[in-house]
Amino acid sequence: MIRRNPEFVRSKEESQNGTFFKILLSIDVSSENMRALPHEFTKSFSNKELSGRKMKIRAQWGSSWEVGVSKNPRFYVMEKSGWEKFVSDNALGHSEFITFTHKGKMWFTVNIFKQDGKEMMQPPNHVEDDKKEEVVVSTELS
Prior knowledge:
The chain is an alpha+beta fold. The protein has a domain at 32-117: At1g16640 B3 domain, CATH 2.40.330. It has helices at residues 6-16, 32-35, 39-42, 47-50, 80-89; strands spanning 19-25, 54-58, 64-71, 76-78, 94-104, 107-113. A six-stranded mixed β-sheet has the order 1-5-6-2-3-4. Strand 3 (64-71) and strand 4 (76-78) form a beta hairpin. The termini are far apart. Residues 6-15 and 129-135 have low confidence and may be disordered. It holds the Pfam family B3.
């Protein structure tokens, strides 16, 4: 009977747990180059493990997106529809810096840093209860 070496299995999993980043500019936020997965990341996977698979991207606040992965003649890319949903839902495209950390089985956590360098810790358009303001408009007829 052949037994698996748990240290080898863990080592292989760790080699597939990588981090990469993207800087999103409005000019090319949906371009194929922007949606490309880095070669250094994808080379640790077989074609079978990547082609036709879906990445699951999860933000700090718990929202998640499924983004398909496909291969063009040169590299693997995140499919446009899922990528654009992620970008749109997070109001991205204004020079944000995003890190993608692979947690295994094509699950990723993302950290989004705005242009001012601060990390986005909640979804866009989120207004905290203590910061809400009530605006009263009155009109008087004379």
